[in-house]
From TrEMBL:
Listed name of the protein: Reverse transcriptase
SUPFAM superfamilies: DNA/RNA polymerases
Domain of life: Eukaryota
Natural source organism: Globisporangium ultimum (strain ATCC 200006 / CBS 805.95 / DAOM BR144) (Pythium ultimum)
Annotated InterPro entries: DNA/RNA_pol_sf
Length: 128
């Protein structure tokens, strides 16, 4: 099978799984590469990615002027009040006490659930 045919078959969904038979020495190299890839997503990288999402980092981006028109929607810290009314209101009627709906393949860690609960409690307290 040619590389082109393989790509086309993968794109069409005709191939659901690919298995590689490799030498044991090569398998160790592959595992090492995979381990290094997970290290790349460490805490330092997360902080760097967060810092790259500032207004200063966006200045050279073509959407900077447009994004600045809506800077009240993209604050650095989530405010306790709503941004000024732009004439568009969206509402979702839910029963009192209804929890948010997040469907995930795996359950969230307890810390993330607590952070989400705290966020929605603050929003409810602020009248959102």
């Amino acid at each position: 099978m040619s590389k082109k045919t393989l790509k086309r078959s993968l794109a069409r969904g005709e191939i659901s799984q690919i298995c590689m038979i490799v030498d044991v020495d090569d398998a160790e190299d592959i595992n090492t590469v995979l381990a290094k890839e997970t290290e790349v997503l460490g805490e330092k990288t997360r902080k760097e990615r967060f810092e790259e999402q500032s207004w200063d980092a966006l200045k050279m981006n073509p959407v900077y002027a447009l994004a600045r028109e809506f800077e009240d929607i993209f604050p650095d810290k989530v405010p306790d009040e709503l941004p000024f009314d732009r004439g568009i209101r969206h509402e979702i009627d839910v029963l009192p006490g209804t929890k948010y709906c997040i469907t995930r393949q795996w359950p969230l860690p307890k810390e993330q659930v607590e952070a989400i609960d705290e966020f929605f409690a603050q929003r409810a307290k602020a009248g959102h």
